[in-house]
Amino acid sequence: MTETDSAPAAAPHAPAEKSAADIQRLFKAQQPRALALRESTAAERIDKLRRLRRLMFDRREAIMDACHADFGKPRAEVEVTEILPVVAEARHACARLKSWMKPQRKRPTLLLLGTQAAIHTEPRGRCLIISPWNYPINLSFGPLVSAIAAGNTVILKPSELTPHCARLMAEMIAELFDPSEVTVVQGAVATAQSLLDLPFDHIFFTGSPAVGRVVMAAAAKHLSSVTLELGGKSPVVVDASADLDNTARTLVWAKFANNGQTCIAPDYVYVHEDIRDAFLKACVSALEALYGDQGRMADNQDYCRIVNDKHHARLRGILEDAHERGARLTTGAIPDNTDRYIAPTIVTDIPADARIMEEEIFGPLMPVLGFNDLSTAIADINARPKPLALYIYAKDKAVIDRILASTSAGGTAINTAMLQFLHKRLPFGGVNNSGIGNSHGHAGYRAFSHERSVLRDRFSLAFLFRPPYNAFTRQFIRFTVRWLG
Ligand code: NAD
């Protein structure tokens, strides 16, 4: 497939749901392997990661074709946002795995002088990864890298909404692994539910907060541990001190890349009233610099499409709702469904009860709201569930510090957007409604590992705390409590 084939291909038939019995068989087959992997060495795991990295590189054309077929994703964008983060994750893990696996020695506390202690990381065991459609390869193989690094077996269930990518990943994994170690199970909700019925040691879920609740409830039945990478509305605050050109350039890219279908995309923007008009003008210029003349953006091969008709209709619905209530469109228009295209749409004058300010947008619609007093913007952000990302554009350090201190978010980028995802030394995750736990780099390795405390007694005085409690031991205990108290 070439750049000039603009329309996404028709979706192949959705994969048949896998039967509960087949899933159970796969799960059972992974148990002996999971036990064997506990003793796997860093060198063995690194070898698997290297082979995965090499395969990503060898199959990059197929990956680009699959992403284009599923939602018209531009090939360069596939390289930047699907292939690059996975190979970077694998490279980072290969370089550091030996040190991550080394037990971390801990100095004894005063009470336990005479002991040796360390934290050992052990594989969690049988892991389930359920992934979404919006970065279908990145958000499936990214966590897979961490799971392999940590020495686990994996069943990976990709989204049914990107079937070309799901099929390709199934082929790639079958090429590299025996299903008793890593396997891809294709299917939709029924398949996911059969998987969730099983007592996995760890479930790593990426998707919506609504389904995150279903996953956590299912995990509770077996007390499986979970990492939930969820979504929500990620706000942006643009202070009057911000550099407008940089703000517009980075924000517009972050909002409209992947057609706005990004968990950490800026969802809505609060801009200081003093610079609101200049900001809107800068955004229009930045948009045209990225995607060309507004009238011809639909022809631009660098601009992605909405994943399916259902999501297209949902986005059209929330835009119509805002428009009918008096919101104005600075760019874009109410879309028809040609080729699942929605123009980059900047929306202003939005009434507070418009749907666009209630649900996660997950598309190329950018509501812009004004503020005069930073406190009102902060209060509005804090009145909503804690977001996955919060972006701050300001030169004034006091403003940056105040926003950081008074809000909560999974992550924050300052004077840029989305780059926090690419920094492998930063944990990536949400808070409460936007997620539980972290991924990426060492944080990803730890998500798929159990941290086991190991203590060895050499010559501690712990025996003095045991009966029989004679005069001497009672005195010793009393002295110790008073000393530490
Ligand atoms: P989704 O929650 O609808 O689906 C995610 C996965 O869950 C899919 O594999 C799907 O088959 C499965 N699923 C759907 N319904 C299920 C059910 N009832 N029981 C069990 N499994 C079920 O999410 P999506 O539409 O694929 O992705 C969009 C959402 O994901 C957005 O909210 C976005 O913010 C979030 N997201 C978060 C991150 C992150 O890293 N935090 C990354 C990407 C997307």
Percent of residues in helices: 40-55%
Summed up, the helix count is 15
Taken from the alpha-carbon principal axes, the silhouette is globular
CATH architecture classification of the largest domain = 3-Layer(aba) Sandwich
For the secondary structure, the number of strands is 16
End-to-end C-alpha gap: 72 Å
The ligands bound in this entry are: nicotinamide-adenine-dinucleotide
Rg from C-alpha positions? 25 Å
- CATH superfamily descriptor of the largest domain: Aldehyde Dehydrogenase, Chain A, domain 1
Strand content: 15-25%
Task: Let me know the average pLDDT.
Answer: 95
Uncertain runs are 1-11
Spatial order of the strands in the main sheet? 10-11-12-9-8-13-14
Assigned CATH class of the largest domain: Alpha Beta
Number of domains: 2
- Major sheet attributes: 7 strands, mixed
Q: Which structural category do the helix and sheet elements fall into?
A: alpha/beta
CATH fold assignment of the largest domain: Aldehyde Dehydrogenase, Chain A, domain 1
Note down, in words, how this protein is organized:
It is a single chain. With 485 residues, the protein is of the alpha/beta class. 43% of the residues lie in helices and 16% in strands. The chain has helices at 20-37, 42-58, 60-71, 75-101, 138-149, 163-176, 189-196, 209-222, 244-256, 276-291, 309-324, 374-382, 397-406, 441-447, 471-484; strands at 104-106, 115-123, 126-130, 153-157, 182-184, 202-206, 225-229, 235-238, 268-272, 328-329, 345-348, 365-371, 389-393, 411-414, 435-436, 449-457. Strands 10-11-12-9-8-13-14 form a 7-stranded mixed β-sheet, sandwiched between helices. It folds into 2 domains: 3-230 and 438-451, Aldehyde Dehydrogenase, Chain A, domain 1 (3-Layer(aba) Sandwich), CATH 3.40.605.10; 235-429, Aldehyde Dehydrogenase, Chain A, domain 2, CATH 3.40.309.10. The longest helix is centred in the N-terminal third of the chain and has 27 residues, at 75-101. The chain contains 15 helices and 16 strands. The site of nicotinamide-adenine-dinucleotide has 28 residues, from helix 7 and helix 8. Residues 130-134, 139, 157, 159-160, 188-189, 192-193, 196, 206-208, 211, 214, 229-231, 263, 360, 362, 388, 430, 435 line the site of nicotinamide-adenine-dinucleotide.
